Amino acid sequence: MALKIVKGSIDRMFDKNLQDLVRGIRNHKEDEAKYISTCIDEIKQELKQDNIAVKANAVCKLTYLQMLGYDVSWAAFNIVEVMSSSKFTYKRIGYLAASQCFHESTDVIMLTTNQIRKDLSSPNQYDTGVALTGLSCFVTPDLARDLANDIMTLMSHTKPYIRKKAVLIMYKVFLKYPESLRPAFPRLKEKLEDPDPGVQSAAVNVICELARRNPKNYLSLAPLFFKLMTSSTNNWVLIKIIKLFGALTPLEPRLGKKLIEPLTNLIHSVLSLFIVKYLGLLAMSKILKTHPKSVQSHKDLILQCLDDKDESIRLRALDLLYGMVSKKNLMEIVKKLMLHVDKAEGTTYRDELLTKIIDICSQRAYNCLWYISILVELTRLEGTRHGHLIASQMLDVAIRVKAIRAFAVAQMATLLDNAHLLTGNTQRNGICEVLYAAAWICGEFSEHLEEPMATLEAMLRPKVATLPGHIQAVYVQNAAKLFATVLRGQEGAPADSTVAQETSQLLIDRLPLFVQSSNLEVQERASCILQLVKYIQKLQQKDVEVAEEVTALFAGELNPVAPKAQKKVPVPEGLDLDVWINEPPSGSESEDEGRKSKGKAVFAKDESRHTKPRYTEVDEKELAKRREVRKAEQANNPFYIKASPSSQKVRRHSVSKPNPSPSFSLRLWMPMSDQYVKLEEERRERNKADKKKKKDKKKREKGEKGRRRRGDSGPESEEDITPAHMVDIVTEEMPENALPSDDDDKDPNDPHKALNIDLDNCPLMDYQVVVSVIFENKCDSFIKSMEFNVLDSLNSKLQRPDGAGPHDGLIVPFQLPPGISNEARFIFSVQNIVMPQKLKGTLTFIVKTDDSSTHEKLDFKLHFTCTSYLITTPCYSDAYSKLLESGDLKGCSLKLEGVNQPFHHLLARICFHHHFSVVERIDSCASMYSRSIQGHHMCLLVKTADQTVSIDAKCDEPGLLGNVLDEIKLTFSQC
Amino acid sequence: MIKAILIFNNHGKPRLSKFYEHYSEDTEQQIIRETFHLVSKRDENVCNFLEGGMLIGGSENKLICRHYATLYFVFCVDSSESELGILDLIQVFVETLDKCFENVCELDLIFHVDKVHNILAEMVMGGMVLETNMNEIITQVDAQNKMEKSEAGIAGAPARAVSAVKNMNLPEMPRNINIGDISIKVPNLLSFK
Asked: What are the residue boundaries of the AP complex mu/sigma subunit domain, all occurrences included (chain B) (predicted)?
C-alpha cells in the first residue's frame, strides 16, 4: 500500500504544481493568455483523474488563476470532491478554493451540507477550523439553517480555537438565517465572559456588529460591556466596545455619565495607544450630545489633544471643543484655536479649524468687537477656501449690531487699504472674498469713516480691477456711496469748492477702467455712476450744492431680516390667501378637475381598504349572537371535530427494538387551541398595556413589526380571523396602520432588518407543543426510573424545569409493571413551524427482574409534522371569502389520483388527520379552513371527479402550505 | 466588517485578493485596478486612509492601505471598523508573514499565495477579525503546517526533492525584491500586546 502511494507520488511529482504554474506564467509574459489556456486544459485533464492528490494540486492552481481573473466555477464539483478528502492538506486546499469562488448561486453548495457537518464534528480541531473558515465565506441561507445547530454546539467546544471561530461565524449565520439569533443569543452572551481572550474578543466582535444596526436590543448588555471595558487588556476589544458605546449612548442617557470616567482614564493612561485616544475622543463627542456638563470638565485634556501629532486626533478634539463651548470659556477656547491656526500645517486641517472657529463664534459670540477682530485676524490666513464664510460673518455682525459699526468700519477701512496683501495671488486665494464685505460695510456705513477720502481712494485703485467681478461690482457701487459722504463732508466745510470737484475728478478718472470691465454687472454700474458723477461735476462747476441730493440717492437704512420673518407675520383678518383673485381659465380647470378626481379615486380605494375591518365594529351583543349562530352551525357540521384530547391524536409511533422486551408508543398531541388563544390574548393585553403606558410611536411600530415577523402575515390578514379578536384589532391595529412608518425608507433588502429582534422578551416568540407519550411495558419485567430526553434542535426544545441543563433528561413520573401502559406529557417550545422536524431522543430505564436489574436505553425519533402545528379552527364562510379576497395568501395545488372513497369520507379524513374544518360544501366541492399555532391561515378547496381529487390551497406561508400538502398526499397514498 | 483584502505590487499586479462579498471575476479585477489607481497616486507621506472606490461601495467604505517596499497592502472596510485598528492589523499581518516566511519578500507571496491565504485565514474570518495576537496566529499556522508535513510523510519526500531541484536551476529567482526592513521602516508604534 505504502509502495503504491510512493509510486503514485513519483508519477505525479513531474506534474505542474502551483509554483511551476506561477513560474511558467512569469516566463510567458508575451503570450500569457495562451499559456494559461494550455494550463487550464492540463488542469481539466488532471481533474479527470481519480487520484485525489492530483485533483487537489489542480484545484490549488485554479485558486491562483481565479485571483488572476479567470472564471473557475466550472470546477465547482471538483472543489467539493477535494473538500471531502480525508486528508487535512487536501481538505484545506478544497475549502480555500470554495471560499474564493463559491457564492449563493453556486448550485453544488447544496451537496456540501453533510460534508461540512462531518468536518465540523471532526475530532481534529483543524478540520473543524478549516470548515468554519470556508463556511464563513460561502454560507447560504440553506447552509445556515441546516448547520446553525452544529455551530451552536461548537460554541461550547473544549478548544478555544474552535470556540472563537464558531462564535465569529454565528454572525454570518444570523445574517443568512435570522431565526437563529434568538436561540443562539444566550450562549453568545455567555461567551462574552469566556476565559479565553480570543473567544471573548470574537463575541464582542459579533455583538458589536449586531448592535451597530439595532442598538436598542442590546442596551441590556451595557453593564457587561462596561465591566469588560474596565477590565480588558485587549486593545482590539477596547476599540470595539468603545464603538459599541458610541451606538448605545444616544439611546440610554444614563450611560453617558458612567462612561466619562473610564474613557478619561483611557485617554490619560500613558500606556494607551493613540488609537484608543482617537476612539475615546470619538465616544466623548457622542456623550457630549446628551451630557454636555460631564465632558466640560475635561476641557484641558481635550485642548491638549489639539497638540497631538496625529491629524485625525486633532480633528476629533476640534469637534469636541466645538460642542463644549460656553459663554465662559468661549474666548479662551477661541484664543487657543487661533494659536493653532497659525501653527497648523496643511490646508484641510487649517480650513477645518477656521470653519470651527467661525461656527463657534457665530452661534455664541457675545462680544462683537472681539469677534470682528478675530474675523479680521483670520483674513491673514492664506490659501483658505472660506473667505466667503468670513465675509458673510462680517456683514452679519456689522448689519445686526449698531454699536460696533464704527469699530467694524474702521477695521474694514484698514482691510481695504491693505487689500494688496490679501490679493497677492487672487485667483487661487479665496480670502479676497473678504473685500466684498469690507467694501460694502465701508460704503453703507460710511458716516462712521474717519477718513472717507482715503478709503475712497483705496477703493478705486487700478489693482481692484484684478478682483473677481462680483467684488468689483460692490466696489463700484460703494465708491458711489462713499462719494456721497465725502461730498457732504467737503461741502459742509467752509473750504473752497475745488476740493469737492477734485473728488469728482478722481472718480471720473478712475471709473472708465471699470466701464471697460468684461463683467456686465461692473460695467453697467460703472457707466451709470460715471455718468452720474459727470453730471454732478457739471453742477459743481456751476457752484450748485449737490451733496444733499447725492446722499438722498442712498438714503434709508437696510435692516436685517430674519430668515423666518415672513412666517411670523400674522395674516391680516379677512384675508384669505387660498381664494382666487382671478378665476383661473377654464382649460386648466378641467385638467385640474381630472387630476382631482383621479386623486379621489386613489383615495377612495384606499378608504375601502381601511373600511374593510370596519365591519368588525360590532357591539358585544352582536358578537354573542354570532357566537351562538356559529355554535349551532358547528353542532350541525358533521366534519367539525371538537377539541377533545382523544380526537386530536395525530400519529402513533411504534418503536421496535432488537431487544424484544419493552416497547412504547408515542402519541403526538396538539391540544393547543386553548392555550394558544390564551397566550395570544395575554400577549395582546400586554401590548395594549405597554402602548398605553408609553405613547411613544416608535415603540408601537416596533411592536407591530415584531408581530409581522412572527407570522409573515401583515395586520391586514389578521383582521379576518375569528370574531373573538376583532374588537381588539380595530382599536389597536388601525391607528398604527394609519401612521407612516419610519422604516419605510429603509432598504427592505438590508439583512440587518431581519435581525432586529427584541432579545429581552423571549417567551413571546415561543409556541408550545404538548406531546403525549404512551409508555407500554410489553416485557415481563418491572420497569422503573425512566428518564425521557430529547436532543434539542435550534427550533424545538424540550421544556425542562428551571435549573436543569440543556442535556438533562426528564424523569417519567411513574413505574411500569409488566403489561401496563401509562401516558406522560412533555412540553416542547417551538419557534419555526414551517418545516416538519424530527427530534432524536432517548429513554433510559432500569429493567428489574427478580434477581437483578439492568440499565437499558431506547432510542427514538419524534416526528413533528407540519400538520401537527395546525389547530382545527372554525371559520365563517363570509370571513373565509374575505380572507381569500384579501390577496395575502399564496396558492399551491395538489392532485390525487385513484382515490375511490366517498367524498364525505375524504373530507373527514382531511379533517381528522390534518385538523381542518369544513367551511362550506356544495356537491363534490368543499372549502376547508385551518389555522396554525402561529396564526397562519390555511384554506383548501377540494374538488373530486372520477376518482381524482384536486386540492387548491392557499396560505400566507407558502413553505408551511407545501409541507402540509405533502403530508395530505402521504395520508392518501397510505390508504 | 472587512469587505476585501488586497495585496498588489507597485505595478498593480495582484499578489493576493480576498473578497468577503461575492463579485464576479471581472468585477474583482476591476476593483483591484481601481483600488490600485486610487492608492498608487498618493504620496508616501500622506495618511493611510481614503474613501473606497465606486465599485466597492464608494464612500460607505474606507480603504486602509500601507506600502511596504514593493507591495501595497489594502484593506477595504465599512464604518464598523476602526481605521487605526485595521492599520495595526496590517502591521500584524506583515510581521506574521515575515516570521512565517523568514524575511518575507514579494517572491514568497508570488509563489506561495496559498500559504498567505492560510495565514490570513487565522487572522480574518469571513470579514471579521479573528485574532490579533501574532504569537497565537503563528502557533496555529505552524501546527497546521506540521500536520500537513506528517500527512505527506514519505510520499511527500520525492515531490519536495523535485521541487528543490526545480528551484535550484532558476537563475531568475533572486530574492532581490525584498519587502524591506519592516522593523525599521515601521517602528512598532502600536503593536498590540
From this structure: 1-147
Distances (CA, A) of A583 to A578, A579, A580, A588, A589: 12, 9, 6, 11, 9
Residue B140: list chain A partners with CB under 8 A.
Answer: 129, 161
The span from the CA of A636 to the CA of A642, in Å, is 12
CA distances from B135 to A166, A275, B112, B119, B193 (A): 21, 22, 21, 12, 10
Contacts of residue A364, defined as CB under 8 A and 6 or more positions apart, other chains included, come to A325, A326, A327, A330
Q: How is residue B172 written as a grid cell?
A: 531568475
Distance, CA of A433 to CA of A412 (rounded, Å): 13
Please say if the pLDDT value at position A936 is more than 60: yes
A334 near A358, Cβ under 8 Å?
A: no
Grid coordinates representing A686 are: 400586554
A581-623 tens-digit pLDDT: 777 776 544 444 444 444 444 444 444 444 444 444 456 666 6
Interface of A with B in 687-746 (CB under 8 A): none
Over the stretch A454-488, which tens digit does the pLDDT of each residue have? 888 888 888 888 888 888 888 888 888 888 888 88
Could you say which of B82, B126, B162 has the minimum Cβ distance to residue A13?
A: B162
Work out whether strand A937-945 and strand A925-932 pair parallel, antiparallel, or are unpaired. antiparallel
pLDDT tens for each residue of A230-279 = 787 777 888 888 888 877 877 777 777 777 777 777 665 544 455 566 66
Split at pLDDT 50, 70, 90, the class of A713 is very low
Q: B58: phi > 0 → left, psi -120 to 50 → alpha, else beta; which? A: left
How many angstroms separate the CA of residue B102 from the nearest CA in chain A? 18
Question: Which domains are seen in chain B, by residue range?
Answer: 2-150 (3.30.450.60)
Q: Give the gyration radius of chain B's Cα atoms.
A: 17
On the CB side of B55, CA atoms within 13 Å amount to 20
Which residues in chain A have their CB less than 8 angstroms from residue B82's CB?
Answer: 239, 243, 275, 278-279
Q: Using CB atoms, pick whichever of A67, A161, A233 lies closest to residue B14.
A: A67
Residue B116 per-residue DSSP state: H
Which among A882, A890, A888 has a CA at the least distance from the CA of A919? Answer: A882
Q: Which amino acid type is present at position A741?
A: S
Q: Considering only residues 303 to 342 of chain A, which have any Cβ-Cβ distance to chain B shorter than 8 Å?
A: 311-312
A18 contacts B132? CB cut-off 8 A = no
Model-level ipTM above the cut of 0.95:
no
Radius of gyration (C-alpha) of chain A in whole angstroms: 42
Q: Which residue has the higher pLDDT, A719 or A637?
A: A637
Chains A–B, number of C-beta pairs less than 8 Å apart = 155
Mean of the per-residue pLDDT values for chain B? 79
Residue A760: which H helix or E strand, with range?
none
- Return all residues near B172 (Cβ < 8 A) that are at least 6 apart: A26, A27
- Which phi and psi (to 5°) does residue A434 adopt? -60, -35
Of A140-149, A707-716, B119-128, the poorest mean pLDDT is in A707-716
The residue type of A598 is K
Q: Do A208 and B80 touch (CB under 8 A)?
A: yes
- Residues from chain A that touch B159, judged by Cβ atoms under 8 A, are 9, 12-13, 17
The model's pLDDT over A637-647, given as tens digits with 9 standing for 90+, comes to: 545 444 444 33
Structural element, H or E, at residue A770: strand A767-776
Assign 3-class secondary structure to A622-669.
HHHHHHHHHHHHHHHCCCCCCCCHHHHEEEEEECCCCCCCCEEEEEEE
Report pLDDT for B176. 40
Q: Which A-chain residues 191-230 have CB contacts (< 8 A) with chain B?
A: 197-198, 201-202, 205-206, 208-209, 212
Mutate to test the interface with A, among B25, B78, B79, B125 (most CBs of A within 10 A): B125
